[in-house]
Design brief:
The complex is a heterodimer of chains A (117) and B (112). Helices cover 0% and strands 52% of the residues of chain A. Chain A has 117 residues and is an all-beta fold. Chain B is mainly β and 112 residues long. Chain B is 0% helix and 55% strand. In chain B, the strands form two sheets. In chain B, strands 2, 4, 5, 9, 10 and 11 form a six-stranded mixed sheet that branches. A five-stranded antiparallel sheet of chain B has the order 1-3-8-7-6, with no helix packed on it. In chain B, a hairpin with a 5-residue loop joins strand 7 and strand 8. The model of chain B has no long low-confidence stretch (mean pLDDT 93). The chains are: A mainly beta (117), B mainly beta (112). Chains A and B meet through strand 5, strand 9 and strand 10 of A and strand 4, strand 5 and strand 9 of B.
Amino acid sequence: GAVVSQHPSWVICKSGTSVKIECRSLDFQATTMFWYRQFPKQSLMLMATSNEGSKATYEQGVEKDKFLINHASLTLSTLTVTSAHPEDSSFYICSARTPGLGNQPQHFGDGTRLSIL
Amino acid sequence: TQLLEQSPQFLSIQEGENLTVYCNSSSVFSSLQWYRQEPGEGPVLLVTVVTGGEVKKLKRLTFQFGDARKDSSLHITAAQPGDTGLYLCAGAGVYQGGKLIFGQGTELSVKP
């Protein structure tokens, strides 16, 4: 159980393109999803918390106009990298928290490798 | 700001050796999770520890949560090449709305 699907797994596109990444919880409803960025050989860096039906909460230093998050349903959150540039190239990972009270773990998608030429 | 210091960051050992990874903080966590990540994939949850002093075992892996819930360790016995990967500890703050604080990660390489 607790499967999170992320799509696409790999994107290569030209500078200036906007790229949308989808994150779906396949077998549970997730009121909260999280978006991370990861550089090679490094840990995950939280970008924003996505809340179903309300605005996302962004971490300090993350441009909300650059990284648009939409969480329109209990099973889908999307991250759009607008007007992407080479410095936006990275591994983006989403996670969803299983419902319930207490210490529910986060389950991660398989990530999206974004390469901007 | 809560921080989670993970060490060592890199570890290269021979098959059959034992190893321990540590995660330490000055803050109390409501729970702590350990993940393993392989290149090009997302982290996979290994275990969640919740109670101070808790010990959980997963085959050759032993996880411990400190009595004060500020630190945790992962011990691997008789490491195998299949254990190679990035190990991440992540703590859930008491009032963080489910956000996780990640350690820096430990890149483990087990050579045959």
